[in-house]
Amino acid sequence: MLFHFDLKEFKEKVSTQFRPWQRSFQFWVRAADIYTGYKVFQVRASLEKDVQKQEVMWEKQHEIAADKIYSMCSELGGFFLKVAQIVGKPDLAPAAWVKRLVILCDQAPATPYNVIKVVLEKELGQSIDELFEYFDKDPLGSASIAQVHRARLKGDKNDVVVKVQHPGVQELMMTDIRNLQAFALYIQKTDVKFDLFSVTKEMEKQISYEFNFVREAEAMARIRHFLCQNNKKSPVRVPRLIRDMVSRRVLVMEYIDGIPILKLGDEMVKRGIHPDGKLAAAAKQNILKKLSLAYGQMILKSGFFHADPHPGNILICKGSEVALLDYGQVKDLPDELRLGYAKLVLAIADNDPLKASESYRELGIETLSKCENELKELLRLAETMFDTKLPPGVTMLQPFAEESSIKKVAVKAFPEELFSVLRTVHLLRGLSVGLGINFSCAEQWRPIAEEVLYVTGRLPAKDLKQVHKRGASRRRFWR
C-alpha cells in the first residue's frame, strides 16, 4: 500500500492547531508591553511637579499606548475589535485612544467573496444565482463575527441585507476571551478594585450567543414587536426579518438606507447645516432622545434589550429617524434585577444616597468602603456606572483615577447579568458625548422606572411623582 503524504494539508493542520497558542502568545506580549509601559510612566510622571508639563507627558504616553492598542486590535481582529468598541469611548478613554480606536467599529477585515459564497450556499441550500436577482460581492461592512452584503431577492423590488458569518471565527474569539479573563484577574488583584472577572464572564456568555443567527433573528423580531406595541410609533427602526432565509450562520433582513452616526457631522456639512448650529443641535437631541427612550423601555419594561449600541450599529435615516442594527448581543434580565435596577434609577434621579445603597444590596453588588463619606461615594459610583450624565465641567470620566469613587469604594462582587446594562449605559454616554449633549438617562427613565415599580406593587401610590405626567416631564427635561 502506497503512503500518500500531502505536505500542504499537513502544514494547514499544524497551523490550525497552533493558531490559538500563537494568538495567546501575541496577546500576552502586547498586553504586557502596554501595561508595563504605563506602570513605568506613572513613576516618571510622579517626579514631575509642574501640573501642565505632567499633562503633556500623559498625552504623549496615551498616544504611544493608543498606537499599540490599535495595532493589537486591528491585527488580531476577532474579539479585540469588540474590545476596541468598548474601550474607545469619548467619555471614558483618553482622547488619543478614542481617535485611534473609533475607526475600528466597522472596519474588520472582510472574508473573500468566494469563501462567503460557499458558506451562504451551504446554509441556504441554493446557489446565489437561484436566490438573488443581484448580490454585491463587496460587503457594506465587516465586523468581528460577520460581514453584510447588499442584495435583491428574485422577484422582489426591495433590497435586502445578507449577514454571513466569518468561517472559523468562534474558536478564535473564545481563545481571546479566556486570555482577557486571565488578564482581568491580574488587573483586579493589582490595580483596580473592581470585579472585572465577572464582567469578562458575562462577555463570554453574551458573545457565545452571537454565533447563532437563528437566535439573533428571534431577538430582532421580539424587540421590533415590543417597541411597536408600546408606542404609537417605535422610537427606533428595527430591520424586518426575511423569515424563510435564516440559518445558524446566515441572516437576511430588509435594507435600511441611512448614514452611520459617526458620519452625521460630515453629512450635515454637505447639506449646508452648521454642525454646531441650532438646527444641528435639535437634530442631535432628537436622535439621542429616541435612542434613550427605546433603551429605557427595553431595559425597564421588558428586561429584554439590544445590548450593543456602539456607533457602528446606529444609522440615521431621513427626518432624524434612528435605525438600530445588529441583534447578536441581546440580554434578558431576570425580573428581580430589572426591578432592582428600576429602584437604582430612581435613587440616581432623586440624588438619594440611602436609596442607592439599598439598591446595591438588592442587586447583589457588594462593596467595601475606604472612605469617610461612604453613602455619598456609593451614589457617585452608581452615577459613574449607571448614568450617562457627566459632572459640570467634565468632558471625560476617569473612573480609575486616584480621586474616583472606584478607588474609594471597592466593588467586591458584581452580578454578571448586570454588566450588559452597565455596558449599554456607557455606550449611550459615549454617544451623547460624541454628539456634544450632556444628559441623564436616569432622569429620562425616571417615569418608566416609577411605572414598572408601581405596576408590580414595589412603589406605593403615595410615592409616585411622575408616572401620570410623563409627557410634561419629558418636555421639561429636553429643553
UniProtKB/TrEMBL annotation:
Pfam families: ABC1. Residues 134-479 form the Protein kinase domain. Signal peptide: none annotated. PROSITE patterns: PROTEIN_KINASE_DOM (PS50011). InterPro entries: ABC1_dom, Kinase-like_dom_sf, Mito_struct-func_regulator, Prot_kinase_dom. GO terms for molecular function: ATP binding; protein kinase activity. PANTHER family: ABC1 FAMILY PROTEIN, PROTEIN KINASE DOMAIN-CONTAINING PROTEIN. This is Protein kinase domain-containing protein.
